[in-house]
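2024-03-11 09:14:02 INFO worker-7 job=invfold-0412 stage=load source=structure_tokens
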């Protein structure tokens, strides 16, 4: 059976502040809804395992489809209460890894060596690396077995600098996705702020912002079902 590994954050606040953040629910729930529709199995992982906080700002952008997933006991238990730890995961079980967003990921995704090792193994076995919005943070520093940045020479997208300005977080986040992507050799592509957009370049499938989840799954599902 085809299976996807979904990555959630454990970060509860913008670091150095009392402003809460966490997982942007829709970026996970919409993805899960598409996996269920396609009959694709999935697991949830986070850097520490266990509890996943929700970004309160993201809860303002829910709809019926998102809430239907959020109300599923299995989603709450496996995705928000008891996510797997990296040591619980066998990369050989997965055809793809998907990094969700929410600003929290900018602090616990980029340099997590354990999840990087899982993603590298999935990539090396021909699997797909995917992300949406700030989830690109999980791919920005990922290197292949030769020590080269996986995104180097590839088209990718993620939450843009303009979107960070509009969100009022440009001076709060530890880095800007566009800048780091360019520094590490990627071709960062984008559309207008807060418009749905996703791009595939080989085994990389990335989406620009919270409204791009289904654009990601439209590319990823056919790829992993081949």
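2024-03-11 09:14:09 INFO worker-7 stage=emit residues=226
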């Amino acid at each position: 059976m085809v299976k996807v590994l979904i990555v959630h954050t454990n970060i509860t606040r913008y670091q150095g502040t009392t402003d809460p953040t966490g997982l942007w629910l829709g970026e996970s729930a919409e993805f899960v809804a598409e996996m269920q529709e396609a009959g694709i199995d999935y697991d949830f992982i986070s850097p520490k395992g266990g509890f996943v906080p929700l970004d309160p700002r993201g809860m303002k952008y829910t709809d019926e489809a998102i809430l239907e997933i959020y109300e599923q006991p299995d989603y709450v238990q496996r995705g928000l209460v008891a996510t797997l730890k990296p040591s619980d995961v066998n990369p050989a079980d997965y055809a793809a890894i998907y990094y969700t967003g929410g600003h929290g990921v900018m602090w616990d995704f980029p340099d997590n060596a354990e999840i990087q090792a899982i993603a590298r193994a999935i990539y090396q076995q021909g699997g797909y690396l995917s992300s949406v919005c700030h989830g690109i943070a999980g791919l920005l520093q990922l290197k292949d077995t030769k020590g080269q940045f996986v995104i180097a020479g590839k088209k990718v997208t993620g939450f843009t600098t303009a979107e960070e300005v509009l969100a009022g977080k440009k001076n709060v986040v530890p880095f800007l996705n566009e800048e780091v992507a360019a520094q590490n050799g990627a071709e960062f592509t984008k559309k207008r702020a807060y418009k749905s957009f996703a791009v595939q370049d080989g085994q990389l499938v990335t989406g620009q912002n919270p409204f791009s989840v289904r654009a990601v799954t439209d590319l990823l599902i056919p790829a992993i079902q081949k």
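2024-03-11 09:14:09 INFO worker-7 stage=report msg="The chain has one domain: 3-225."
2024-03-11 09:14:10 INFO worker-7 job finished
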